[in-house]
Amino acid sequence: MPVLSGLALGDGRIHSAFKRARISDANAGEIAQELMDTCIVRLQKSRKIFTSWVDDERVSDKLLFTTPFLRFWFAFVAPIFKGIKEGNYAEFNTRYENKIVEFREAVFKELSYALISKNFEEDKIVEIGEYWDRDCEIDIYAKTASGKNIIGTCKYSNAKVKKSEIAKLQELTEKAKIKADIFILVAKSGFSTEVRGLKSENLKLFSLKNFKNLI
What we know:
Layout: H1 2-8, H2 14-20, H3 25-37, E1 41-44, H4 53-58, E2 62-65, H5 68-77, H6 81-85, H7 90-118, E3 125-132, E4 137-144, E5 149-155, H8 163-175, E6 182-187, H9 193-196, E7 203-207
Parallel strand pairs: 5-6, 6-7
Antiparallel strand pairs: 1-2, 3-4, 4-5
Helix pairs in contact: 1-2, 1-5, 5-7
C-alpha cells in the first residue's frame, strides 16, 4: 500500500502521507483505522494543548509503525517487492543507501525514549514521545509522575553536539510555549567539552555508551 511506504520514510503525519498516496481526506480516517486494527501502526496525537477546534484541525496526527521491522519492510522491500522476488536488487540497494540514515534516526529516537524512561526511576516517566504543532517539532517531550516537563533532542550524527544545540532547543521550547523543567540531549557521537561542562540535574546528557543499559 503506497500510504505505508509514505509513512515509513516520512515524519508519520497522516495528512501528508495520505496526500502523497493520493488518498482523499474523506477516506483517510477509515484507512488509518484499518491499519491500526492490523497492529501495523499506532496513532500518536500531538501533545499541544489546543485552545480552539481551528488549531486542532491544523495539526495532523501521526501514524507510527509498531516495530522497526515493519517500518523497514514498507520503506525498502514492499514498494519494490516484485524486482526483489525476481532477483533484481539494484533498486533496493539504491533506495537503502539513500534512506538508511533517515531510517536509523527513527530507530535511534525510539531507543532514546526507552533509555530516558529507564533513567528516571525515582520520578518515573508517565508519557514520552515527540512534540509537534504547526510551527515546530521537538524530538523528545516527556512528563514525569510529579508533573515535570522534559524536553530534548536526538542527534544521530558523526559530529559532537555543540552548545548551539542547547540554544536551539530552548528556542523551540519557547516557541511551543512549554515550561521545561529538564533538558535532555541524546547524541550518537557525544558532546563538546563545553556542553559536557554544562551537565547538571537540569541538563542531562546521553551518548552511545549509555545505551548498553538497555541490554
